[in-house]
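Reopening this ticket.

The earlier resolution said the output was attached, but the attachment link was broken on my side. Pasting everything inline this time so it's all in one place.
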Amino acid sequence: MKHVGMIVLCLITASHSLVGTSSPFFSIHTEKRDAYVFHIPYPDHVDDFKSIFFNACFDFPLALEKAQQENKALILVIPEKYYPISTTENTAPVIEGARIALAWASAYYRFNSLGNVDVRTVLIPSNATPTQTIQAIVTASQMEFENQKNLTPEEKMAQRMIHANALPFYGNLNKPHITPVSIDSPPVAKKVIISKPHSEKTILITGVAGFLGSYLAQAFLDKKYRVIGIDNFACSTGENLTALHSYPHFEFHEFDVSHPFEVEGPIDYIAHLASIPSPADYYTMPIETLRSGLHGARNALNLAAKKNARILLASSSEVYGNPEMHPQQESYKGNVNPIAMRSQYDESKRGEETLAKLFYDTHSIDIRIARIFNTFGPRMRLSDGRVMTNFIQAALSCQPMIVHGDGTQTRSPAFVTDTVNGLIALLESETITPLTTIEQRIFNVGTPQEYSINQIAQCVNALSEKHLGRTVPIQHIPHIDPTDPKVRRPDITALSSATGFKPIVDFACGLETMFLHYHAQPHT
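Inline output:
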């Protein structure tokens, strides 16, 4: 196997110091191999949780890039218990940090265009001594893996996850030479947005050119808010902004919010919607997906803290993964695989929520977290790879509707106006007070209407027959993503109780509105 790069990520107890230094990143030299080591300790005190989480989210990918550029050899060492927990539990910054590190490593191993990093993961027991941990690192670095072409990248990643107790130790190993290494972030100029003066309330919306972002902006413009919109068009175009430019109190700034930014003047609300939420995009842009989720949320939260602004973070039902609870309640801890095909999106959203906890604990920011479930309607990109757009595009172009798997997996599609009304109700709610805990600030946003993928395909075909006079075949193919959720339906009791929100658009009516919208487009 060709080794493009190797890093060692080590999470152990704080008392088990490997290097006698506070540096989280260092090199290790043995007789047979050099490697980089990224050390994230499991702390004894909660005061260290924030720095540990930030190291995993923001320093570890820099270490990955350094090892990749220098063609070093990779081992990822984490605690044996990195199982999902609630994103707002006290230990979430450590456990979720480990899972995010796995997602970063997985993204670089599976997708990076500069060359995939060969990752091995060693699971370290909590009672391992520093000597045992070092020996596991050195031992794992000697192992070779055959390039089995019949395995998927995810299966190869799983194959490389080895428990330290199961490693074949190579006799007495000499103590390796360890040297701290600097991984300073490259300098990035902070964007300063100078906004126009306005007498009414101001909301800043990131991802404003996206499907949900444009609807949310228009709703607040209709409420006479000043809206400052930011987008970098990573997975959208300016088409959704056309209707917004006619409002005198709308201003747009093209910018990537994963880079630092600030805004001059007062801001009342922030809605952080910037994300790469479509499978068609996050499968091909995994690193950008993690950056937009983690870096973008950090920058939005920093701005909220500086401006004392209320902030809405757009999380996702994907934090539940392939759920074992149905319907899903906010208290459910999730069933997410941190090295799966969609882990870059799932873990970026889980990481956003943990960031929210850290900022809430540190700055007492007025945060509301919306776990948005499947939403559909006009302004979605037909090429975005989601079920509704895929089926409508197939019907309009007289092509077969492709169903992955047997089609019995379910979704709860909410029409876009219902989802936007839920977000507005959550953002404007005054029932959330300074005494409301961070756990009580997380809300499912969606509809409990549940349909199988087969049923959705049949509904689109019924519309095709009604409006086009034809139907198209429904073709089942093997599933490309085994972690695709089998069921998805929100319990919206918490949101309804806090805001009075109830979805009102019937699925069939919303689907026909969407179908006719695209049928009227000249390019369909």
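Reporter confirms the inline version is readable. The radius of gyration is 24 Å. The longest helix spans residues 286-307.
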